User: Fold this.
Amino acid sequence: MTDEIRSVEEHRSEAPSSVRCMIVTVSDTRTEETDKSGQLMRQLLEEAGYSIVAYRIVKDEYEQIRELVRDAAGNELIEAVLLNGGTGIAMRDTTYEAVRDSLDKEMPGFGEIFRYVSYAEDIGPAAILSRAVAGVRGNTAVFSMPGSSGAVRLAMTKIIVPELRHVMREIYKDRK
Assistant:
């Protein structure tokens, strides 16, 4: 085992056993009953032992999304905010900009890996249309992904669910 792998495994072993999450669906049309992607996020997080402390559906409005991310980051009960929807390239899609502009630190690897895996396993060159983004605001992890159920399943199962505890370990390591 290389030192790098050993270090990652050590960090994962020091990670919190659960993370308190807020799920946000960005949509001008979805309701709680029709929000399949939000429901899928909930299911995958709960199956992995994460807790859901808040759930919201918000319109694809830049200021509304920024305010939600800021408020969530200021709430001690919320450790991670996971958004789906509004990440396309249409003029109406503002989630990417709102989330990016709310972050203290960006994790560019999330979007890069999401597009890579999307390309390789799912949608081919259409992956260039994805504007997934993640980062940290204060002590809160923030992940934003496209709103299709396929994109949510891919982001959650391949990246977020397996790595969220480690992300939180890194955020918390300076808080002593």
The domain at 17-172 is CATH 3.40.980.10 (Molybdenum Cofactor Biosythetic Enzyme; Chain A). The CA atoms of residues 58 and 68 lie 9 Å apart. The first strand starts at residue 20 and ends at 26. The longest helix spans residues 149-172.
